[in-house]
Every structure is written in C-alpha cells, then in structure tokens.
C-alpha cells in the first residue's frame, strides 16, 4: 500500500502555443513578423517570452513582404504569422514573393478546430491547399506532439536546396492541447536530432571536370562576361566574385539586386554598357541569376545567337529548364571557390588594353557622361533626374556602412536603377523577379530589423507607397531608422495622360484610372503618429530634408513634388545604353 503521507509533484504542463514558441526559438529564430488575432495571439506572446522579437504590422501582405526580405538579407527563414482564413489569404502575397524570388520564408497560420472542418467554422479554409501553389513545402500539425517536427521540417525546407517559401498550419485545437514540459523538451530534441541526420545525407558537390570545362571556356573566350544576381548575393559570394573578376579582368554585369556585390563604380562594371556587353559577349558566366525576362531569356536579339552560357545555380531543375552550354549545380560561393582554385593553377587575365575590356569601358564612360550631363541640370518643377541625383549624392555621403536602399515604383525605380549607386552587398531591395508593387514599407522594416547598424532609405513612387503607406505607423512605433522618399507626381505614371478622344462615356468626368489626388500631403501621414514629415519642391529643400533626416536616423517621410508630365508608362526594364 502506498504511503498516504508521501507526495508526488505533478509535472508542469505546457500547451501548443508554448510548444510552438519553444520550437521556433530552439531552431534559432529571433524575429517574426505578422498580424495577431484568434487563434494565434497567445503563440505570439509566448514567442516573445521565448526570445523571439515580434514585429506587429497592420496588414499581413506587408508583413509577408517583410518576412521574405528578412530571409534574403539574413540567410535564415523569415517568419510570417497570420490568423486563419482571410489572414492566411492576405499572407499568400508574401509567401508567393518568397517563392518567386527564391528567398527562405515560413508562413505560420492558425486554422479552425479540426473537429469543425466542413461545418462552416469561423474563418474556415483549407489553408494547406491554398498555400500549395506558392510553397515548396506545406504541413499541418494535427496533434501537439507533431509541432516540433513540423516546425523543424518547414524551417529547414525553406533554406535547403533552392530557398523558398514554406507553410505551417496550426489548428486551434492543437494549440490548446497540452503535454508535460519534459515531454515537450524531448520532442524538440528529437526533431533537432532528426534534422541533423538528414542534413548529413544531403551533401553534394560540383564535379571537378565541369569546373575545368567552365574555366577553359572563359580562358579561351574573346569576349567573356560575368553576370551575377541576387542568388549570388544570398550566397555571400562577393569575395569570391571579386577574386575571380580582378584576377581575370573579365567585365561584369549585375542584375538589379546583384548591384553592390562589387561596387557600381568598379572599373570592370558593364552596367552602363549593358546592351553592348550582352549583345556581343561570346561566353557568359551567369552566377545566381536566372535567364528569365530580366535577362531577356538569354535569347536573341538582345544576346548573340552564338553566346555560350555557363550557368551556376543551386537548382539542377533551373539548369535543366534553361539548357545552357554548361551547368554547374551548387551554392554560388562554393562553386566560385572551385573556379578560382582552378584558375590559380593556370592564371589568365584580359588586361585593361584587351579590345573587349576597352570597348566596354569606352561605351560605359560615354553613356555615363551623357547621363551626368542630364543629371547636372537643376530642373524645377522637378523631373525624376534632378531629385534622384541629389538623393544619390546624399546616400553616398553617408559612407560605410552604406544605407539599404529600397526602391519601388515605375519611373522612380527605373530611373533610380540607373542613377543610384550601390557600393556594398545586399544594400538594394526592389520589386524583384515579379516586379511586385507594394513591397516598399515591408522591405524597409525587414532591412531595419535585419541590419540595425544601417540607415534604410526608400525611394518610392506615390503609387507604390500607397500600397503599404499605413505601415509608417509601424516605423514610428518601433522607432526604426527609415527615411521614406515619395516621388509625388499625382498618380500611376503621372496622373491623367489620356488623349482627348479617350475622355468619353457616362463616367468621363471621373478621375482617370491613373490619377490620385493632386498635391497629396503624404508627409502629414507620418506626422499623425509622431514621425517627421517634409514637403519639398526645390533642390535646396530636398538637400536640407535629406541632411536632417539622415542625421537623425528616425522615421521620416519626404514628400517630393514631381512634375506630373515628367514620367512615362513603364513595365519591363528599358535599357537604352
């Protein structure tokens, strides 16, 4: 018979919210973005208590864009938390953005009680099916004991192979289930151990014979070119690229978000001679960039019909799709290390006097000179060039660490891509592979959180800004060092551009589909929350606002009045150099 005087201490129980928070922290996650509500508010609070910083947004779309950019900037999964149903649907914008840009992200959504599925429960949706087209891995934790395993699998899938978005579903009933604290710790340890075993089985390497072939192609080329993109930036391949380019003297061309891996001002930079570089090169080493619309699919007439592509990509499916002359599968940094090692065995260098290098250099200088002549003029009312030059000079004056530049819009982004100068890696975030509008404020917040030692400067069109303008309150609430510059030209492309014959029909007196309220006081919006707003329309006013806001490193909006007739309709990138 048991001793009636003996006492046993009952084991502490924890619920699914706490286990989910502990799993997130155990993986090493330090930041999460989202919008809370039923059934995930407790999870967010427990995550904060576990050491995860939660950045609360007004809209899941912007929070999702922040999570995707955070994944790119840090190399760790960006986390988005949403409620069920419509919250999940709103979050799909960020999840799909992560997938198309191949950035690691996990969207975590609460969902309805499993016992009520099919009965029309509150915000009921088959979220696994909804997320599948936009994720590389989707999983539902059907029981509390599955939570650690599901978390570790989703988080690891986001960063494994080609990075991308993953989805994790947490039903309401699972979040309310309980286990003992000791069992919870055991479940987390088992999930972590299983992950380490799986990682050990995934190791791959690029064949040395393929690397030799690649180097031989570069060595024997008459007009070689190295193209690199945000995949190389994500892989932290800047040192290997610098070594390759400066040892061989091969000109280089970054894609928009590859800018800064080597400074735009580097003597081998071919950005200002882009048409010549891609039109005449005979061998192109493409590192961490896809031959999609941004690179004209690698096809004539932009590229020579005889160009031979060497494609470096972490995905063998991408190489199979593009069918280059030679494909090297692997992490960009590791592949370039092998390429540099092979070159070291038998060095070669084009030299400054090589006809190809000279042709690129001369064309670039010619185009830069032509653009600088345009930039030198102070045009008031502002066109796009005058304020962009002033912003460029102010950003460069900051020095190192260089600010992170966030750019979105039509004319604003197009002009900014040519004028603004990137000097350091991963300091440019823009509309990306999809040309997505609305990413601006989310990207700003992600950059400020991921790179707290850097100022963040957004150069936005008024249309792009409008998608997420309410998040300026988020900037103020967290006191993030973000300066948002809005190019205000009264609408999409510049307000009403219709011909007289187009203004007809019963609603002809309505504003044009491209028009916004003229003279919109965007700077007042941030002032409502305690931030600093500026309205500028002259060079001196803009210089003063930039100097003051950059020095303060506090949330600010600079509303730049632009001539509504200065812009043009924009879509695919236009390159006239």
TrEMBL record:
Any one GO BP annotation for this protein: fatty acid alpha-oxidation
- Identify the cofactor(s): thiamine diphosphate; Mg(2+)
Protein's UniProt keywords contain Magnesium: yes
Q: Give the reaction(s) catalysed.
A: a 2-hydroxy-3-methyl fatty acyl-CoA = a 2-methyl-branched fatty aldehyde + formyl-CoA; an (R)-2-hydroxy-long-chain-fatty acyl-CoA = a long-chain fatty aldehyde + formyl-CoA
Q: Which residues form the Thiamine pyrophosphate enzyme TPP-binding domain?
A: 409-560
Q: What is one GO cellular-component annotation here? A: peroxisome
Per the database record, which ranges form the Thiamine pyrophosphate enzyme N-terminal TPP-binding domain?
16-129
Family membership noted in the UniProt record: Belongs to the TPP enzyme family.
Its quaternary organisation is: Homotetramer.
**Name recorded for this polypeptide:** 2-hydroxyacyl-CoA lyase
Q: Which organism is it from?
A: Dovyalis caffra
């Amino acid at each position: 018979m048991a001793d009636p005087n003996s006492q046993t201490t009952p084991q502490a129980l924890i619920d699914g919210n706490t286990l989910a928070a502990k799993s997130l922290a155990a993986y090493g996650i330090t930041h999460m973005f989202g919008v809370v509500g039923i059934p995930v508010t407790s999870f967010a609070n427990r995550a904060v208590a576990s050491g995860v910083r939660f950045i609360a947004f007004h809209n899941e779309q912007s929070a999702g864009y922040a999570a995707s950019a955070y994944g790119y900037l840090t190399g760790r999964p960006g986390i988005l938390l949403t409620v069920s149903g419509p919250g999940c649907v709103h979050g799909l914008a960020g999840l799909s953005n992560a997938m198309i840009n191949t950035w690691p992200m996990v969207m975590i959504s609460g969902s309805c009680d499993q016992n009520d599925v099919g009965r029309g429960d509150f915000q009921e949706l088959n979220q696994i099916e909804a997320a599948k087209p936009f994720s590389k891995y989707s999983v539902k934790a059907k029981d509390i004991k599955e939570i650690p395993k599901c978390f570790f699998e989703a988080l690891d899938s986001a960063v494994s192979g080609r990075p991308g978005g993953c989805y994790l579903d947490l039903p309401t009933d699972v979040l309310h289930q309980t286990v003992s604290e000791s069992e919870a710790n055991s479940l987390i340890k088992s999930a972590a151990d299983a992950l380490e075993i799986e990682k050990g089985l995934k190791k791959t390497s690029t064949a040395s014979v393929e690397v030799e072939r690649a180097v031989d192609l570069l060595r024997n080329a008459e007009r070689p070119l190295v193209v690199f993109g945000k995949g190389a930036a994500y892989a932290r391949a800047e040192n290997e690229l610098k070594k390759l380019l400066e040892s061989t003297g091969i000109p280089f061309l970054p894609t928009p978000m590859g800018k800064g891996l080597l400074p735009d001002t580097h003597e081998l930079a071919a950005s200002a001679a882009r048409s010549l570089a891609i039109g005449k090169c005979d061998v192109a080493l493409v590192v961490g960039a896809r031959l999609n619309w941004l690179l004209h699919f690698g096809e004539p007439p932009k590229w020579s019909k005889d160009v031979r592509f060497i494609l470096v990509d972490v995905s063998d499916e991408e190489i199979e799709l593009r069918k280059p002359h030679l494909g090297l599968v692997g992490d960009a940094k590791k592949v370039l290390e092998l390429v540099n090692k092979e070159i070291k065995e038998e060095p070669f260098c084009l030299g400054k006097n090589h006809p190809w290098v000279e042709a690129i250099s001369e064309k670039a200088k010619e185009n830069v000179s032509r653009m600088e002549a345009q930039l030198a003029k102070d045009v008031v009312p502002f066109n796009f060039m005058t304020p962009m030059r002033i912003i460029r000079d102010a950003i460069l004056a900051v020095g190192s660490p260089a600010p992170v530049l966030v750019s979105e819009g039509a004319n604003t982004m197009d002009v900014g891509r040519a004028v603004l100068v990137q000097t350091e890696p991963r300091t440019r975030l823009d509309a990306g592979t999809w040309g997505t509008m609305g990413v601006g404020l989310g990207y700003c917040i992600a950059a400020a959180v991921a790179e707290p030692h850097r100022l963040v400067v957004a150069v936005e069109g008024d249309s792009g800004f409008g998608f997420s303008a309410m998040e300026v309150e988020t900037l103020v609430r967290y006191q993030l060092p973000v300066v948002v510059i809005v190019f205000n030209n009264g609408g999409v492309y510049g307000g009403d551009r219709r011909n007289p014959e187009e203004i007809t029909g019963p609603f002809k007196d309505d504003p044009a589909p491209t028009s916004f309220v003229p003279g919109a006081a965007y700077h007042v919006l941030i002032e409502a929350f305690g931030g600093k707003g500026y309205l500028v329309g002259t060079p001196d006013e803009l210089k003063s606002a930039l100097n003051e806001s950059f020095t303060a490193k506090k949330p600010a909006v600079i509303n730049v009045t632009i001539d509504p007739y200065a812009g043009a309709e924009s879509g695919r990138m236009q390159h006239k150099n």
